[in-house]
Write a structure and sequence with these properties.
about 30% helix, flat, RING-type domain-containing protein, about 10% strand, alpha+beta, 10 strands, Herpes Virus-1, 6 helices, zinc, Znf-NOSIP
Length: about 300
């Protein structure tokens, strides 16, 4: 059976609803699967299993080498921006001094022309008492200033001397490093190492990539479905249930017996659980605007109907 004429008609000056739908117009929503969610035991920078993990006070964990390289790169970038800002200020100061010098020289020339403007400078009777522009005395100074102002304000891109300029201004850089995940201020001394209890069961695989970790208190396997808590005093990681039940009462770590308080508990951030009940953003959104000459509507191939 042939399709409707409205779906086959392609000589209109606008896109029909069916054409927009095939081109992927609008907001596309897709639920993220398990492969799109970062496991709890992977670095937030290299996305690989932890190697000497370090954690910030907000619960973001990274490999020690990765976070040190990140902080070092941020410091080098801040030094580069500071040098660029200093160079810009130096150029601005030199331009201001040059502008003041030119203005002072212009004022001297205008003063000299105003004082000697009444003296005849041409022997021709028709040009007696006039300058080369045809103005008398002090009026020549006014006409010259008008011409310079007009040339300075005229935006004629075909004249090299009157081409408008748009200098790039360097903003003052931040003086503190930030966490690559949480974007909060982060210092090297605020990081602390964390220690995960490995499952030593012989039936488990011994490959370091396939390591499984358990809670040292209840021996439950740690996954993204559990809320984890780390102690910033000793770095041991527990599930939230054990941390809320035993640590405030004993006021000491269950592994090393080091004293701790409730403020030493740091909830670890994770990449998601795959369940909507854990307040994680598990839905990806992508908006495509179908405009004239944008080409954004052709990103997604048309679907077959």
């Amino acid at each position: 059976m042939p399709q409707r004429h409205s779906k086959n008609n392609n000589d209109l000056a606008f896109f029909t609803y069916d054409e927009k739908r095939k081109l992927g117009y609008g907001t596309q929503r897709e639920r993220l699967g398990k492969d799109s969610i970062k496991p709890f035991d992977t670095c937030g920078l290299c996305l690989k299993p932890f190697i000497d993990p370090m954690c910030c006070q907000k619960g973001h964990a990274f490999c020690k080498e990765c976070i040190l390289e990140c902080l070092l790169a941020q410091k080098k970038d801040m030094q580069r921006r500071q040098a660029a800002l200093a160079t810009q200020k130096k150029h601005e100061k030199e331009e201001e001094e040059e502008r003041l010098a030119l203005q002072k020289a212009r004022e001297l020339v205008e003063f000299d022309q105003q004082n000697h403007g009444a003296v005849p400078q041409y022997t021709d009777k028709n040009n007696y008492g006039k300058d080369k522009n045809g103005f008398h005395g002090a009026n020549s100074v006014k006409a010259t200033s008008f011409e310079e102002e007009a040339l300075r304000t005229m935006k004629a891109f075909w004249l090299p001397s009157a081409t408008p300029e748009a200098p790039v201004k360097v903003e003052a850089p931040s003086t503190s490093t930030v966490c690559p995940e949480g974007n909060e201020k982060l210092k090297l001394k605020s990081l602390f190492p964390i220690y995960l209890t490995e499952d030593r069961n012989e039936t488990k695989k011994s490959n370091w990539v396939d390591k499984t970790y358990i809670c040292p208190s209840c021996k439950v396997t740690l996954t993204n479905t559990l809320s984890l808590v780390a102690l910033n005093t000793c770095g041991h990681v527990f599930c939230k249930t054990c941390a809320g039940k035993f640590l405030p009462a004993d006021k000491s770590c269950l592994v090393c017996s080091k004293s701790c308080k409730e403020r030493n508990l740091v909830p670890l951030e994770k990449g998601g659980t795959g369940f909507a009940g854990h307040d994680e953003k598990l839905e990806a959104k992508d908006f495509k605007h179908l405009g004239s000459g944008s080409g954004l509507g052709l990103v997604r191939p048309p679907t077959k109907t």
